[in-house]
Amino acid sequence: METEDAIQLIGTVSQVSPDGTFLVRLPNGHVVFGHISAKMRDDLTGLGVGDQVQVEMSPYDLGKARITSQVK
Question: What is the average pLDDT score of the chain?
């Protein structure tokens, strides 16, 4: 997937799983399954419930997202 095809949104972490996956609530009310990008995994930011994150989604699968950064 090329980055210009990706949909970028800001969402809120609503649930954290022990295996490093997250449920992210988007502004339109949808909840997507998110995982941390490799670049963020190196930073080990420690995301928690209620944190604002930027997600990147494929237009072909709107149920999954990649968490690319934490919004301060």
Answer: 89
